[in-house]
Amino acid sequence: MHHGFSVCVCHSERRRGQLAALSIAAVVILIGVPLWWRTTETYRAWLPVSQIQELANLQLQLSADVEVVFARGTVTPEQQKKVPLTLTQDDEHVVDGDLRTTICDLMVTKYEGCKVSNVLNSFVSRGHSVEVQDVDVYVGQRRTALLRIGAQTRVGRTLEQLLSHLEPRVKQVLQVMSFSHTDITAALSDRVRLSPGNKESIADSMRAFKSSPGYEITFSLLNPDPKSHRLHWDIEGAVQTYIQPLLRKLAPLANFSIDSQTLYYAMLGVNPRFDSSRSAYTLNSDSLAHVINPVEARLGSNAASSNPVLNFLLYVPDAHHSPLHINDHKKQEVPSNAFHSPRWGGIMVYNVNDFYGPEAAFPVDINIDMAKVMGVFLAQLRLLLGVQSSAPPPRFLVAPCSSAGIADWELDRLMWSRSVENIATATTTITSLAQLLDQIGNIVINDNIAQQVSSAVTSLQLAVAELESGNLRFALQYSKEAILASERAFFDPSLLHLLYFPDDQKFAIYIPLFLPMCVPILLSLLKIVSDARQRRREKHAKAD
Amino acid sequence: MKILTLWSLFSTYLLASSLNIENHAAQFFSSGHTNNWAVLVCTSRFWFNYRHVANTLSVYRSVKRLGIPDSHIVLMLADDMACNHRNPKPATVFSHKNMELNVYGDDVEVDYRGYEVTVENFLRVLTGRLPPSTPRSKRLLSDDRSNILIYLTGHGGNGFLKFQDSEEISNVELADAFEQMWQKRRYNELLFIIDTCQGASMYERFYSPNLMALASSQVGEDSLSHQPDLAIGVHLMDRYTFYLLEFLEDIHPASKTNMNDLFKVCPKSQCVSTPGHRTDLFLRDPGSVLITDFFGSVRKVEITMETINLTDPIEQVEQSPVNGELQKERNSYVDQLPVSEIIHQKPKQRDWHPPDGFILGLWTLILLVFFKTLAFQETAVGSKPPYRVQ
């Protein structure tokens, strides 16, 4: 009896123990594990991954409208009736494996009674000499170009011959004035590494600054000899008159901020050589490269912004080393006496020894001729901003630069290449960001990043659509918005993936936490299972 | 005879000079970079790691001498040796025994100092993910035409580099950071030099193009220090950087030495460890890469051929009178920092984390319950008074 009672007591106690172990295991598995999972999860906002994938296969279509006006006398009345009103020409180029650009020109023909010779005459009367025989195409200030059909083609040509003669020439004009395959490829050099082909195109792509939302322009006057020269330059007026018109026209592209400074006792880093044949000091083209570095340390920059800086330096040589001339490779004097460095700025040497005689009382007051100086700086600015294109094809005459500093078609050209560049850069940024976030599962994606990515994707799609329909201003605006949003998303400080955890480190962190807890639970579960099995064996034994 | 030799000399001179011009034109296009940056990092602190700071400052000095301006150098020093209390010669950091060469000088611009040198800040500088309030001098503002030199020194091991004696950066993280730089085209070509123990392990995992790497020792080897100075009491330089500095002292901004000479710096006889290098990711042939492509800053220069003829006279900038009299600008003080707002700020809402002892308390509870039931079981069996057999 005693034996049975103790067995009964043992059994209920054991039952209680087993229930306790089971309930602890249940709590751990049902509540503990999900709780741990939720609290160690990283917040990842949703990203439009599928749209980003679509954008990665970039297909750009650029279209430009061309209006062809036939001057009186070039086309006979019967031919007039037969000329088609619109003509579309498509040109497809594969730039990279997954990138295509299609260039189409729509030609609209119109007839007007204007005489070509009138225009050329008025051009000549303004004082520019032009050999009318040598020129086949004249590109004007705004968006017009005059084509001359050769004398032999005017009489007795059929319509088809005329059109077939015209098409390639119109295409050539379009390539000069709007965009060509090389321009677009250069703009896409972010995605497509330019194969070392044309040396000129490589130099062009290296020279101009990349597209940026803002630029800082600094004009510096370097006076190494204040004891001899007291220099006065009306920089504010000069900037207002000469530089601001250009920058106002370029306003849709970027914001510009201008400042100026005067540096005293700033020497060039190289010693000029005295050339007795010209009784002047000379700087070789080889030594020009070493001029910039010592000066740059003293130039300073606006610490608040990260925009690229263009530096324009005006150096007035000291009285003992005047006049100072720059020689080119062939040891010839350079007429502009200036040089520029790609993606940095330009330096001009301004000689003032003509302004005073040997008996002048030092320091001499000198007023700098800002028109001459700004002429050089403006030319360098055009080169550095990418406005200047490479040399035009033969038998082309381009109208010289107006006071605005930039022709309308040059602006268009710049806008085309900038839009394409912005779209390409923004696409690359967004796709690489999506790839990075996909690869690293531990990065937290905040809401603001997801919002920036979505707005970048929307802007990109709009920009591509606007390019297709040929609305250049809207395309540029959308592409700027896209690139701003994508840069903000990519360079957000919270995306630092300092979370590289190799798997063995993960084990090393979790084992000391969970193992001591799980071992008793597991042991008691095993004990329960083995007891149950033993009881079943006993039952079978009893049954037998 | 004399005339013949004279003439032949003259013609060879002409040929050489014309070739020289061609070479210059070719060089313009061969390297493809327009500016140079340098990121120089010393990762260890404490006085006995004096040599790491001296290493970094020596490279800084060479790089500045060869032309890279301070605005293009990001210098990170984890500890201040020049003003350390244990420095018998304050405001100096020597790199040669007998105090021959002071690399500290008075124009050293340290961008990240002391405790600011962390793995996080280093990666932020490389990838560009800095908070918007960071000043320009602390940023790496490189573009796709920048050649960057990255120099790291400190204590390292197989696959990691120790920062500040409390954290480390692994070679995978470094390779990923370089890949992110490549994705955003933040460099044209990158030269990575590391002077630590087992330094070659740090460049094993690189996979981005246009990277060249040099290390002072192979995996399994230690990089050794060069010489102690008895007056200062610590080792002044590491061997690899000492011979590197000696090599760089012979380089001037116009020299044409190429990378193959750099690979030969500090052979095993001088360095005891075997320096290694990696060039398989680099597109150009190392023999055509100049030392000054990375260590110096030789600018490309073009002569300005065209000018614009400006004929308009300068318009005078006029003050437009308002209400009949000139409106003077009132000068006023800039708003001072809103101190009261800052002091009485509410603490930011941070994400709720469970209290630290939570896990500890949880399994203590579980263990307690477990043992309690076990004990209860035992005492339950033991405490029942035995029934006397009737």
TrEMBL record, chain A:
Keywords: Endoplasmic reticulum, Glycoprotein, GPI-anchor biosynthesis, Membrane, Transmembrane, Transmembrane helix. Pathway: Glycolipid biosynthesis; glycosylphosphatidylinositol-anchor biosynthesis. GO terms for cellular component: GPI-anchor transamidase complex. It is found in: Endoplasmic reticulum membrane. InterPro entries: PtdIno-glycan_biosynth_class_S. The keyword tRNA-binding does not apply. It is a multi-pass membrane protein. The chain crosses the membrane at residues 19-37, 507-529. Its main location: endoplasmic reticulum. GO terms for biological process: attachment of GPI anchor to protein; GPI anchor biosynthetic process. Belongs to the PIGS family. This is Phosphatidylinositol glycan anchor biosynthesis, class S. It comes from Sparus aurata (Gilthead sea bream). The gene is PIGS.
UniProtKB/TrEMBL annotation, chain B:
InterPro entries: GPI_transamidase (IPR028361), Peptidase_C13 (IPR001096). GO terms for biological process: attachment of GPI anchor to protein; clustering of voltage-gated sodium channels; detection of mechanical stimulus involved in sensory perception of touch; GPI anchor biosynthetic process; protein localization to cell surface; proteolysis. The keyword Heme does not apply. Pathway: Glycolipid biosynthesis; glycosylphosphatidylinositol-anchor biosynthesis. Residues 1-18 form the signal peptide. GO terms for molecular function: GPI-anchor transamidase activity. The keyword Thylakoid does not apply. It comes from the Eukaryota. Heteropentamer. Part of the GPI-anchor transamidase complex, consisting of PIGK, PIGT, PIGS, PIGU and GAA1. Interacts with GPAA1. Interacts with PIGT; this interaction, via a disulfide link, stabilizes the expression of GAA1 and PIGK and links them to PIGS. The active site is at H155, C197. This is GPI-anchor transamidase. Keywords: GPI-anchor biosynthesis, Signal. The gene is PIGK.
